[in-house]
Amino acid sequence: MKNYEQKDKTVSVPRRPLPIWIMVLAGAAVALAGAVGIAHTLAPPLIATPFAELMSETTPEPVGLVVRETPLPPPTPTGVPLPLPTVIPITLTETLPTLVPTPPPDPANDEAWLVGGEAVDAPPAGVDIAGCNVNTDTLVHLGLTVPLTVEVVTDTEQLHIWLTLREPVPAGRDLTYHFLVALDLDGDPDTGRPPGAGYINPELGAEVGAGVFLYPNGELEPYLFIWDTTRGDWASEAATPDIVQATLNESCDTIVFTFPLEKLSAAVEELSGVTLTPGNLKGRTAVIANSTTEPAVVDFCPDLPE
After folding, report:
1. How far is CA 238 from the centre of its chain?
2. Is CATH 1.10.760 the right assignment for the domain spanning 5-16+102-301?
């Protein structure tokens, strides 16, 4: 199942907005224009009496007082009352920027012996995980940006599981590094590989196990396991499709596992009898370093439950 390539010093396994703030201010302009027009309508222009007439020395002739027996009716108003202006409220609409979630950091210096689980006083470099796209509750973050460019040979939807290291895997190394991931595709511990059957899934029912070995000579060896419910074990190599892709960046501090979602779903449904449920997808990642003479040191992301 070897499938790897080194290109431009980037080792990979083939086989594979600006926020917008909107302010609606037109209402204020309409209200202001309406108010000015009404003011002119309600206050007709005054006709000034000529100054010469006011200051004339000619005394006007007296006007006799006429008394009517029947009083005149009050004048009938001829003006049409003007409606009051409509107040247009000013509405401020804002679109908040979409916050891109970030994965919770994995605790530093929490490497342990794989067997026994005790802390390691002087762990090798390249084992301590800085973060991964799996939350502390083991739910997979599907919306996070993949931290490196992954070249795939298909345009179908992909599932990416990734982790980053605090220190890169050293170039001159005597240890074999093992990056791996376990996935519980429906979030149900009663389906898949039983909880506790492996170090990485003490509480998860894992339908998928994937990994890649990084040997001291730089060779990559990926693999994929899918749980076979009928067998009660991982499916045979012949029954397991070769669909996992692993990409390791040039600095050897980020690893990305890529699965074609449609093919993975079909294979798991056929072998495990489980339907992938994105909202319930759970998992865990890990890094292990060991050799034929050195015991295995591991770091999990997220950490194992206490």
Report:
1. 37
2. no
